[in-house]
Amino acid sequence: MDKEVIKEISKKYPDIKELFEKHQALEREVAQISQKGYLTPKEELKVKELKKEKLYIKELIYKLIKKYEGINID
Question: Gene3D superfamilies in the record, alphabetically (predicted)?
């Protein structure tokens, strides 16, 4: 699902908006850490954890959209 579509839907639902903003913040954090040419093992682990959290939030967003809008995302 496109980010713009999620952004539009999030205008109607505060919980989706909050999750979407958290997802965007995590995305920026991953990008910032990943800019470095070399990541330490600690930084690599941090990126993996952030990506897992992003995925979890994305799944929550999709479930809520499906629940609220009846949109089939599967």
Answer: 6.10.280.50
pTM for the full predicted model: 0.85
Residue 51 CB neighbour total at 10 angstroms:
14
pLDDT tens, position by position, 54-73: 999 999 999 999 998 887 66
Answer whether residue 1 is part of any domain.
no
In this structure, the number of other CB atoms found within 10 A of the CB of residue 53 comes to: 15
Q: How many domains does the chain have?
A: 1
Residue 45 falls inside a structural domain: yes
